[in-house]
């Protein structure tokens, strides 16, 4: 029963309430466990009904937005993307009076902007499915920021070489994307702040749990026992008695059930053409 106190400390520090909830609900202090006390019995603890829901607790924090409002802003981002992609079809750089190098530079900028719009739509779609993800929100905001400079460059070139009205429409779509990015910025700060606070609370709880466990284990662990240094003795590879007597049959001796057979030379037959030796004469 000497581990009962350690068990209570580990279980007690396994999950601590966040700082926001610890001020509202204070956990009851557990009585100290002694060596003669019986093991603690499991009890059913019902959650208090006075705790606010996560949405209600987060509604008062700065930057918080309802998921429906976040999806509404992302829908407006999609409408701005659709407008920009529709304006791409009206740009005719081959009709402009430009040098070949300038025309190639604009075509490359336009192709890069198309790729960035595709990337923005991919991140926006993922963030629309998970509006509580700080990572997807950051990538969506970064994709909007990457689109804006080239979109403004395309608007200037179109205004100068093709149609001022068409260039103004490009600029208007860019302004809409910028306003939507600024509207999402406080919500992204809220997500990142909560994630940082959660990680800090987890690290603090883990450090406190380690300190409590170290204090509970103080004086209970047995001292380390020194071990005698022993020089290892290497005797080589083990060989059987049969393998020692017959080196050629080592492999056959190591495999049970098989006997080694040495190849024998065939008997030499007498040659029919060779004459027989003479018989000895009797004296």
Task: Describe the 3D structure.
- The protein is mainly α.
- It has a domain at 64-199: Four Helix Bundle (Hemerythrin (Met), subunit A), CATH 1.20.120.
- Helices cover 57% and strands 0% of the residues.
- It contains nine helices and no strands.
- It has helices at 4-12, 19-22, 54-59, 67-88, 100-129, 134-161, 164-216, 241-245, 250-254.
- The longest helix has 53 residues, at 164-216.
- The model is unreliable at 1-11 and 14-54 (pLDDT under 50).
Write the layout of secondary structure elements.
Layout: H1 4-12, H2 19-22, H3 54-59, H4 67-88, H5 100-129, H6 134-161, H7 164-216, H8 241-245, H9 250-254
Helix pairs in contact: 1-7, 4-5, 4-7, 5-6, 6-7
In brief:
With 283 residues, the protein is mainly α. It has helices at 4-12, 19-22, 54-59, 67-88, 100-129, 134-161, 164-216, 241-245, 250-254.
Radius of gyration over alpha carbons?
Answer: 43 Å
Architecture (CATH level 2) name of the domain at 64-199: Up-down Bundle
Based on CA inertia axes, which overall geometry fits? flat
- CATH class of the domain at 64-199, named Mainly Alpha
Mean pLDDT: 75
| Number of H/I helices | 9
Strand content is under 5%
Give the oligomer, counting copies of the same chain as homo and different chains as hetero.
single chain
The low-confidence runs, each spanning 5 or more residues with pLDDT under 50, are: 1-11, 14-54
Order of secondary-structure elements? HHHHHHHHH
Could you estimate the helical fraction of the residues in percent? 55-70%
How far is it from the N-terminal to the C-terminal residue, by CA?
A: 113 Å
Fold-level CATH name of the domain at 64-199? Four Helix Bundle (Hemerythrin (Met), subunit A)
Could you state the CATH homologous superfamily of the domain at 64-199? Alpha-catenin/vinculin-like
**Number of strand elements:** 0
Largest sheet: none
Structural class: mainly alpha
